[in-house]
Amino acid sequence: MDYLQPYIPLGLLLILAIGFFIANLTIGRLLGPQRPNPAKGDAYESGMTPFGEANVRVPIKFYLVGLIFLLFDIEAVFILAWAVVFNDSSIAFDTAAIAFSESAFRRFAFTEMMTFIAILLVGYVYVWRKGGLRWN
After folding, report:
1. pTM for the full predicted model
2. How far is CA 135 from the centre of its chain?
3. Residue 12 per-residue DSSP state
4. What distance, in Å, lies between the first and last C-alpha atoms of the chain?
5. Over the range 97-111, which residues count as b (16 or more CB within 10 Å of their CB) and which as e?
6. pLDDT tens-digit profile of 11-29?
7. Could you tell me the residue ranges of all domains in the chain?
């Protein structure tokens, strides 16, 4: 039973959070004004009465552009983090887990990044050839 002791504060916090949630809902229900109105049940969009149908078909191009943006945005984040580590000269290379000299590590890291960029370039060329970047 001693192995559960570290989870006691977590359990107490969970109970406290659920109690706080239920107390707030109950107090709001008891003390808040109850004035039902048909206008309160209507849809509200930026202060205007909605018009047209809610289920409008969105062209797939919007989703493709969004996914391509995410792909290259994440690529930029990885390259930035890699560049910071690649430029850092304070990395210790004398541990048993890293059996590289500094120059060997730099060659390895550079090769890995070029492989990463090559894979992304193949994807970019594929999307370009399929017309995913053309907006008609």
Report:
1. 0.49
2. 26
3. H
4. 66
5. eeeeeeeebeeeeee
6. 999 999 999 999 999 999 9
7. 60-130
